[in-house]
What does this fold into?
Amino acid sequence: MLHKLIKKLKSNKIETKISKISRKVKQNNLTYLSHQKIINLEECLQDLKNNSLSGIFLEAGIALGGSAIIIASLMPESGSFRGYDVFEMIPSPSDKDDEKSKERYKVIKSGQSKGINGKGLYYGYIESLYEQVIKNFESLDIRVDGCKISLHKGLFENTMFFTQKDTVAFAHIDCDWYEPVHLCLERIYPVLSIKGYLVLDDYYDYGGCKKAVDEFLQNHHNLVIVKSQGNLVLQKISA
It folds into this structure.
């Protein structure tokens, strides 16, 4: 009984550390992210606000839109949000991914994957997922208008492009496997602001993500690790 009470008190204490919008997202079962991962996102976003650093705030790997909603809600007023996803069944891992990733994909492909907290339908099985994500945004009073807030449907290699005028202040990369993580790093890094953040959701979860990030860091020494609990947070410290 005492153990359950202590556990509940700890949970309540962590709950108070995240924003009101994040609590709503969690309550509505719209994100797989742990409280610690959300705290890391929020701290990065607050730091960017404090330093008046704006630009593009993006997420690669939207799922039900929970963390995207958090980012879009907490980014600076002058920022814009871009979300990228296939909005259907996740593509398969490659030979560069570990066995854990491949086993996870087998479960997903077999139709046996469960929804968030074991509730509801796994997002990859939802028909018209793109439309459902828009509804999830709207349920928390955020309008996907295609300008301030935009969602881009398709494989990243076909949708994620930037111009020389674009500046990315923050990127949450949540796409599991080696190939998509590698592609995101290659495309986002050249337009990432100095003091901008890259957050790798799956660094400690899937070997392919870790491999892609470790390889990238070997050749980009101006990216430093600033947080490594829950997810991995990198910051660009120089040109």
Residues 21-236 form a domain with the Rossmann fold fold (CATH 3.40.50.150). The two ends are 55 Å apart (CA to CA). Strands lie at 56-60, 80-85, 149-153, 168-173, 192-200, 223-227, 232-236. The chain has one domain: 21-236.
